[in-house]
């Protein structure tokens, strides 16, 4: 599944790479929230491939698009990437395999690797783990980078598990109240519900989502705000153990960079991140959580 918005012709490389996967039987679902018809026209190039399904929706927010796609899916395993990624031919196979090996796994994440780019001009969000691992419950939460176990650009879900906890939370993700963190929000709630999460390093997707340094700073603030709000919501629900995980994020995102700058006799440049983490935490605590029931949140 791909959820897209105003991507236009550039989505074609993503579609082409998925349709080239070796997995014997799959359907590629595109959920399009675009403001114009450029993406629809770009997808139409592949219309003769019977594996392709396309849905245009006037809803807003990534989590809403994901829930619509999950509700439409007929398979219990749904493999997801972003509309600015390319996947290798074995991607679906490797993203499905852990569900067979671990019956309690609700979600699988893979590496997200940066496409070639000029690091002097900007950067591309990535998530790379040192090794594969299984997260068995909320008390054994671990991450690949100190913040996330993985990101939505390389994710697969057991649909029945997602449906049991309400799917993705419309308060989180691009275009929502809390702007981001819908992937980690889903992950932590799955663990709280008794499911497991698997992080694989056997496969990765290539991410072409280049940001200038200024765009990257805005993205980082948005992500930290969403992560702070996520932990605020979890604390409001009574998951006190997650306070420890919030403090780890604070350490990784704020304290460690500040100490590195001081060690090089430079003024700390990342202390502003603390504002966004704290603001998110406060707003998350102040906002009534959505009631999670069986189904997909936001859909009647």
UniProtKB/TrEMBL annotation:
One of its GO terms (molecular function) is transferase activity. InterPro entries: Glyco_trans_2-like, Glycosyltransf_2, Nucleotide-diphossugar_trans. CDD domains: Glyco_tranf_GTA_type. Residues 2-109 form the Glycosyltransferase 2-like domain. It comes from the Bacteria. Keywords: Transferase. This is Glycosyl transferase family protein. It comes from Oscillochloris trichoides DG-6.
């Amino acid at each position: 599944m791909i959820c897209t918005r105003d991507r236009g012709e550039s989505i074609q490389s993503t579609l082409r790479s998925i349709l080239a996967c070796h997995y014997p039987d799959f359907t590629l679902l595109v959920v399009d929230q675009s403001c114009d018809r450029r993406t629809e026209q770009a997808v139409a190039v592949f219309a003769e491939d019977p594996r392709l399904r396309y849905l245009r929706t006037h809803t807003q927010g990534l989590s809403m698009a994901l829930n619509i796609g999950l509700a439409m899916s007929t398979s219990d395993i749904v493999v997801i990437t972003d509309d600015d990624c390319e996947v290798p031919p074995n991607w679906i196979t490797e993203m499905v395999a852990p569900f067979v090996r671990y019956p309690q796994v609700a979600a699988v994440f893979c590496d997200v690797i940066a496409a070639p780019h000029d690091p002097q001009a900007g950067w591309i969000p990535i998530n790379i783990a040192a090794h594969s691992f299984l997260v068995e419950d909320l008390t054994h939460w671990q991450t690949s980078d100190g913040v996330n176990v993985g990101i939505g650009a390389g994710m697969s879900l057991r649909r029945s598990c997602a449906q049991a906890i309400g799917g993705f939370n419309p308060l989180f993700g691009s275009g929502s109240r809390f702007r981001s963190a819908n992937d980690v929000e889903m992950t932590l709630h799955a663990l709280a519900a008794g499911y497991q999460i698997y992080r694989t390093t056997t496969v990765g997707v290539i991410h072409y989502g280049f940001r200038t340094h200024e765009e990257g700073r805005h993205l980082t603030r948005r992500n930290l705000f969403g992560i702070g709000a996520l932990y605020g919501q979890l604390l409001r629900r009574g998951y006190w153990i997650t306070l420890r995980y919030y403090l780890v994020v604070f350490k990784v995102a704020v304290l460690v960079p500040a100490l590195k700058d001081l060690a090089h006799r430079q003024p700390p440049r990342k202390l502003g991140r603390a504002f966004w983490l704290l603001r998110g935490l406060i707003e998350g605590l102040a906002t009534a959580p959505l009631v999670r029931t069986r189904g997909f949140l936001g859909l009647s």
